[in-house]
Amino acid sequence: MLIRTPADLGAVIRDRRRQLKLDQAAFAKRIGVSRQWVIEFERGHPRAELGLVLRALGALNIRVDVGVDVELTTRRRAHGAVDINAIVDKAKRLGHDQ
Amino acid sequence: MLIRTPADLGAVIRDRRRQLKLDQAAFAKRIGVSRQWVIEFERGHPRAELGLVLRALGALNIRVDVGVDVELTTRRRAHGAVDINAIVDKAKRLGHDQ
DNA sequence: CGGAAATGTCAGCGTTCGATTACATGATTG
DNA sequence: CAATCATGTAATCGAACGCTGACATTTCCG
Asked: E-assigned strands of chain A?
C-alpha cells in the first residue's frame, strides 16, 4: 500500500495487528512501547517517533519500501515473485499524476 | 529500497536531495522545517516526527510502500486508482499460504 | 443479564523534539 | 588568498512526546 500520511500507517498497522490476533497491550509490549502509544499511533498521530514506528512495522512483518518516482530504484520483492507490481505501478503513475 | 532503520531513511533522503541539487536550507524550507532538522534526520535521528518525515519524502517525490511479507493486508487506496495491486496480491497470496 | 476483556480517555511528569540564533569548519572558486 | 556557499556544532526554550496509572466505554461470550 502506498503511504501518504501518518493515518495511512496507523490504519495499516491496526489492520495487521488484528490480523495477527494481537491486542493493543500485547502488541505494545512486543515493540516496547506503552499501550497509549499504540492507541495514538493507530489513530494517526503525526508526531510519533520514527524509530518506534519502524519497530512497530517490523514487529508485524510489514515491509517498508521507498523508491523514487519513475526511473531507478528497481525494487525486488521478498519472495522471488513477479515484478508485476512494478509494472503496474509505473503504468498507474504515467496515467495519473506527478 | 527496503527500509529497516531511521538511518536508512536518512541516507535515502540525503541521496535524493543531492540528486535534485537541493542544499539543506532549500530543502528544509520546502518542507517547512529547520535546517537543523534536516541535518539530524539525514544523520538518522530515530525520534524524528513521522509527519515531518513523510513530508520530506513527499517533497522529494519518494514513494513509500508498505506491505506484508507474502500475504498482504490492504485494500483501500488514497485516490481512485486501479486496484490491480489488490488482485495481484491476492493471487499471490492464494498461491502461498493462509 | 453479567462479567471479563479490549479499547479509549484523562491527568500528571520527566524527557526531548524542533525552532532559533550564532558561530565553526569545509569546500569551491574568483 | 579571500570570499562565498554548504554543512556541522552549540545553547536556549517552549511545546509535545511517551510513560504511568486510574477510570470510562465498548465489545464479546458464557
From this structure: 62-68
A-B contacts (CB, under 8 Å): 141
Q: Contact A47/B49, CB-based, under 8 Å?
A: yes
Cα separation of A6 and B74, whole Å? Answer: 16
Asked whether the CA dihedral B79, B63, A56, B83 is positive or negative, the reply is positive
Nearest to A61 among B54, B69, B85 (CB): B69
Q: Does residue B53 contact residue A50 with C-beta atoms inside 8 Å?
A: yes
Which pLDDT tens digits describe chain A residue by residue (98 residues)?
A: 999 999 999 999 999 999 999 999 999 999 999 999 999 999 999 999 999 999 999 999 999 999 986 644 333 333 333 332 333 333 333 222 32
CATH code 1.10.260.40 region(s) in chain B: 6-59
For B68, the enclosing helix (H) or strand (E) is strand B62-68
Distance CA B35, CA B31 (A): 10
Distance CA B86, CA B62 (A): 22
CATH number of B6-59: 1.10.260.40
